[in-house]
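*** Query protein ***
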Amino acid sequence: MSENRIVELCGISRARSREDFERAIRERICPFARGKCSNAKKSNRDSAPEICSVRYRKNDVIVCPKRFLERNQIFIDCLYLFSSREPSDELYLVPDVKTPGGTVDYFLIAARNGKIVDFLGIDLRTIDAKGSLCRERRSFLEERGLPNDERELGGSESSFGLKWKTTLKKILVQLHRKGETFEKLNKRLVLVVQKPLYKRMKRILQSESVEGVRIDDPIQIHSYDFAETESGTRLKWDDRISATSDDIARCLKLSEQNKQSLDELLSFVKRELTDERRLDITR
């Protein structure tokens, strides 16, 4: 019998006890997003809830973007990119900001006396899956003697795989569209990915002579990977590279224009600077 692919369920390492999983499955709380697990929709028969990462060809691969939110470290690691921030400025996280190139997962905002002084866009990307993880989830629960709520989930039996090529192309297209908007605003867009995906992206960029990191580049790519600790799997910093929208366009062999005024963009973001959006770096 082959080893079950699930590495983390509900943010808990597969090495943890049955009791830990029993409580986690019952409550379905994501410890990274501090809310209910949202990586499955009942209308999608190829979804399996609560799965954060899986083992695939000797790699532990993140399949839910919320997994990157551990301890808010990815946001802290972006602070060096602010050009106008002062130490006393307040920090806010605004999710799901619409731009001409598409919705950006988060805007990290530096504000002073209620006024926005600087901001960064941050996108989280994982590898697209093909097939279903429902079968893996079911066998994982059975191994630990936990109840299986498959009737509620409606899982399929199709085999599971990862779509590296299509994921990379989709990411590059999105990077070009969004990156061009940030470039025109003289701001930065940070793409957060995991090491296996980053290595493939880096090879593509280097094929167009994109090397190293330039802090002024509008597109910054941050790579993270897993570290094994006594308490389970933890996210750790890996590497970074930067690019311009022209660099991405050369990789895609295309050229497009996206425009949006700074005032238009910030008019939406400023309304979202509420107390619940304050970035908590103590988590």
Observations:
- Residues 1-56+129-160 form one domain.
